TrEMBL record, chain B:
Domain of life assignment: Bacteria
EC number: 7.6.2.9
PROSITE patterns attached to this UniProt entry: ABC_TRANSPORTER_1 (PS00211), ABC_TRANSPORTER_2 (PS50893)
Entry keyword Nucleotide-binding: yes
ABC transporter domain location: 3-233
Name of this chain's protein: ABC-type quaternary amine transporter
Keywords: ATP-binding, Nucleotide-binding, Transport
GO molecular function terms listed in the Swiss-Prot or TrEMBL record: ABC-type quaternary ammonium compound transporting activity; ATP binding
UniProt-listed SUPFAM superfamilies: MOP-like, P-loop containing nucleoside triphosphate hydrolases
Species of provenance: Streptomyces doudnae
């Protein structure tokens, strides 16, 4: 009887202490997202849809009934579907080759294809404009222009998301045990059948996750469409920006924000589901063991085709961008960046480099702190449904209109005790919102992979719980933490949609400065924009190359 | 007593992994807990280490109740089944870990690491990476790591489980010799009877979370307490029987039993050496179903006309061919009437 009584008294107490620890870890992330994400977004939606204290939900039906808006919705959806299909078609061979073929410069190629992903969208748009637009490379060579067609947008989206597929699918592909396929071959399956029956199902969840991520990114595309789309093509995000900052129709913008919110929420729910399925037990091996030299003409041809695709699709636009920045003799555009021109900026544009680095460092610190705490809470084995729901919620900032967030910051965080309008911290806070999902997605697989018995071994040897964390967990996740920090840094550096609203005129970031230079006429401004973009690209590429060296064995989501 | 368990119980939901276990380990004693997988052996170690909270009962170390004492303050050592060496530290870093946690100085750490690596036969290995070690070397490092802080009780979870047979047989002798030399108190668990008998001063057989038998290796081997223990030790000739006087009625017919055997219905064990092969036509008539070479002898499986299969041990040159007909006689000194034990738990 004694036994039963203790047991009954004990079980809830243990469950409670587990919950308490988890809630303690989650407190900061929840507060952060509540104050700096949910509150500003809710505030701006309310501003648009409330009139005299009354919700005017009828506006939703009105707005959705407008033919122009329906056209935007339709275009947003089909271009996202087309971009996703095209990206998979182009990037899957690349994922395979970079995962399974061992060739000199493989790491360099992997880093190069990742550069576009962290480039500011304005830079991507500009690079493609320089390639396929009026007076661009194709125009000069063959008189071909694509900038008024949807192809420019689709190509830019492939350029942008190539790395998502290569990293997510290729990362898993590199770790699948080739002997599984060999076993199928020994049982009588043809090479194609073995691939279809063994490898494809194993890749399935990663493939689904990559597809959804690409769809999400292209569905919410802003900078690329803004620059390449012209008046004919507009996505939801571009339309929200137009309604907010050009037409000042806040109620239409609010409705569109809600529509995008609902669509992104649905996409993320599906994504969270596939991510969970991906964690099913797969036999993973060291990627170094699965890669081998290509053999035979067909494999060399495949490698050649992939490298040619990377050269044309990824390297060429970047090269054109760099070449345009060097058009003026003696690095003229670069030297112009150091001068005050008195018109576009109050300060020399080169100061944007310093601003960007400072903001990105602060944003990285915030994102790593919030993201690591959230990942630690989510990694606990006893994480319940509520916590897993929070996992999906953390991804929302990736999809919710950055324009909405930026504008929301301005109208929501303007009263004590949260009067941050004039504080420099506003920019890093907005940038950190986008960085946190990357930190969580990178840390989570590694934290989940730490064997609980290693912690027990340390405890039995006399380590207190805090020392166990310091001696066992920290060394194992240190590399993942650095990788996560690098991603957060690169993403913060390139954030545009929200920063453009809240960065102060005398403290522009690199992407904001680029966009401002592009918005002004004249060759000097254009050339300076190219030069600044090149600097931004180099900073991103260097941090990515460092990341590639640190990359953990376990593949994260990105 | 260095360690005593007093009605220690651990429940996972409705299942009792440990069911009111009472166990005492004296200082410098080597006790080996033997049981099939799922019998609660590892849970027993985890409960003593403080990694698994008890649902009932108590654990005493040096007479002190350990309720509320966390794992890192119990001062016991545990060697995990798969070693659990810290992958990011070298051999020396692993061995020194427990010393660092106790605040030992650098010089002392280095001295002790060198001492222990000499002891386990890996001198000068301190700077090697643990991933570069073979299974046997990892096992030695894990042992050195557990011994380094001089735990008052060293616990081993399937210490030699993952090693190959010849290495295991050599190491178990080394370990026993080492523990006796150091005067270490050891509580080990294993599912391998050979390992348990070679290592232990005392063997404790566990079944379904409870202790089925406890005694010296010889006692347990010669007098298994019940049918479960006998079968677990590898004896196959276990049948229900009714004893009357100096004979027992069994499915194999009437068997002689030693004098003073408990009377009435019971369970009978016939050791394989007590099954003597005689020419066909004498004794119980059997055919040879299979034979297995066991190194020093041949284990012969016999199918009698009635009753379950019989196992006999016979010298190499006398072993009959499969399918041959033989007769069987029983040696009363190798027949044992077993206790009832407790009835097996219905799942």
């Amino acid at each position: 009887m004694d036994v039963t009584r203790t047991e009954v008294a004990d079980a809830p107490r243990r469950a409670r202490s587990g919950n308490a620890a988890r809630l303690g870890l989650l407190a900061l992330p929840v507060a952060f997202f509540g104050v700096f994400f949910a509150y500003p977004v809710a505030a701006i939606v309310a501003r648009g849809l409330r009139d005299g204290g009354v919700w005017r939900l009828g506006r939703i039906a009105d707005v959705l009934g407008e033919p122009g808006i329906r056209h935007v919705l339709w275009f947003t959806t089909w271009q996202a579907l087309a971009s996703t299909a095209l990206t998979l078609l182009v990037a899957l061979p690349g994922a395979y080759v970079l995962a399974r073929y061992d060739f000199p410069g493989r790491h360099l190629v992997r880093a190069v294809v990742t550069v576009p992903f962290v480039l500011p969208t304005v830079v991507v748009g500009t690079a493609f404009l320089a390639l396929v637009g009026r007076g661009g490379l194709l125009d000069g060579l063959w008189g071909v222009r694509l900038d008024t067609t949807v192809w420019a947008i689709l190509l830019a989206h492939v350029f942008f998301n190539y790395a998502v597929v290569v990293r997510t699918v290729g990362g898993l592909w590199a770790q699948l045990d080739p002997r599984q396929e060999e076993a199928a071959r020994m049982l009588g399956a043809s090479p194609l059948a073995a691939w279809r029956k063994v490898t494809l199902p194993a890749l399935g969840p990663a493939l689904a996750a990559a597809t959804l991520m690409v769809f999400l990114f292209t569905f919410t595309s802003f900078g690329v469409v803004q620059i390449l789309g012209g008046p004919a093509f507009s996505t939801l995000e571009v339309e929200i920006y137009r309604q907010t900052s050009e037409i000042f129709d806040l109620s239409t913008a609010a409705v569109l924000t809600l529509v995008q919110f609902a669509a992104v929420g649905a996409i993320l729910a599906v994504h969270a589901w596939t991510v969970r399925r991906r964690e099913s037990a797969l036999r993973l091996v060291d990627p170094a063991l699965t890669a081998r030299r290509p053999r035979g003409a067909r494999q060399w041809a495949l490698l050649g085709a992939v490298l040619a695709t990377v050269a044309l699709l990824v390297v060429l636009p970047l090269a054109v961008l760099v070449r345009r920045s060097l058009d003026a003799p003696g690095f003229g555009y670069y030297r112009a960046l150091t001068r005050e021109d008195g018109g576009t900026f109050l300060v020399p544009p080169i100061q944007a480099v310093g601003n960007s680095l400072q903001y990105a460092l602060a944003a990285t610190a915030i994102a790593v702190l919030v993201g690591a705490l959230a990942a630690a809470a989510l990694a606990r084995r006893d994480a319940g449904r509520l916590v897993r729901g929070f996992d999906a919620l953390l991804m929302l900032p990736l999809g919710v209109s950055a324009v909405t967030v930026g504008f929301g910051f301005l109208i929501a965080l303007d009263e004590p005790p949260l009067d941050l309008r004039s504080s420099w911290i506003l920019v890093p806070l907005a940038q950190a919102l986008v960085g946190v999902p990357f930190v969580v997605r990178t840390m989570l697989p590694v934290l989940r992979a730490v064997d609980g018995r290693l912690r027990e071994a340390a405890a039995v040897l006399g380590a207190s719980p805090w020392r166990v964390w310091r001696e066992v967990d920290l060394p194992l996740v240190r590399r993942a933490l650095l990788v996560a920090a690098g991603f957060a840094f690169a993403v913060s550096l390139g954030e545009f949609g929200a920063t453009v609203f809240i960065a102060r005129p005398d403290n522009p970031t690199l992407p904001v400065a680029v966009a401002r230079l592009l918005g002004r006429p004249g060759d000097l401004n254009y050339g300076q924009a190219m030069a600044l973009s090149t600097i931004l690209m180099v900073v991103c590429a260097v941090s990515l190359l460092l990341l590639e060296r640190l990359r953990t064995d376990r593949s994260g989501e990105f | 007593m260095l360690l005593s368990l007093d009605d220690a119980s651990v429940r996972f939901g409705a299942r009792a992994a440990l069911d009111a276990v009472g166990l005492q380990v004296a200082e410098r004693e080597i006790v080996c807990v033997l049981g099939p997988s799922g019998s609660g052996k590892s849970t027993l170690l985890r409960a003593v280490a403080g990694l698994q909270p008890l649902s009932g009962g108590r654990v005493f170390l040096d007479g002190r109740d350990q309720a509320g004492v966390p794992a890192h303050r119990r001062g016991v050592g545990l060697m995990f089944q798969d070693h659990q060496l810290f992958p990011q530290r070298d051999v020396g870093g692993n061995v020194a870990f427990g010393l660092r946690m106790r605040g030992a100085g650098r010089a002392e750490q280095e001295r002790r690491v060198g001492e222990l690596l000499d002891l386990v036969g890996l001198p000068g290995a301190a700077r090697r990476a643990v991933s570069a070690l073979s299974g046997g070397e990892q096992q030695r490092v894990a042992l050195a790591r557990a011994l380094a802080p001089r735990p008052r009780l060293l616990m081993l979870d399937e210490p030699l489980g993952q090693l190959d047979r010849s290495l295991r047989e050599r190491l178990v002798v080394e370990l026993r010799e080492l523990f006796h030399r150091l005067g270490t108190t050891v509580l080990a668990v294993t599912h391998d009877q050979g390992e348990a008998f070679a290592l232990a001063d005392r063997v404790v057989v566990m079944r379904d979370g409870a202790i089925a038998q406890s005694g010296t290796p010889l006692e347990v081997w010669q007098h298994p307490a019940d049918a479960f223990t006998a079968r677990f030790l590898g004896f196959e000739n276990v049948v229900e029987a009714t004893v009357a006087g100096s004979a027992a009625v069994t499915p194999w017919g009437k068997l002689p039993v030693p004098e003073g055997a408990p009377q009435g219905p019971g369970t009978l064990l016939v050791r394989p050496v007590g099954v003597r092969l005689v020419p066909a036509g004498e004794g119980l008539r059997c055919t040879v179903a299979a034979r297995t070479f066991r190194g020093t002898h041949v284990a012969v499986r016999l199918r009698p006309q009635d009753g379950p299969l019989l196992e006999a041990a016979c010298p190499l040159r006398l072993a009959p061919e499969t399918g041959e007909a033989v007769g069987v006689e029983f040696d009363p000194s190798e027949v044992l009437v077993l206790g009832q034990g407790r009835p097996p738990r219905t799942p």
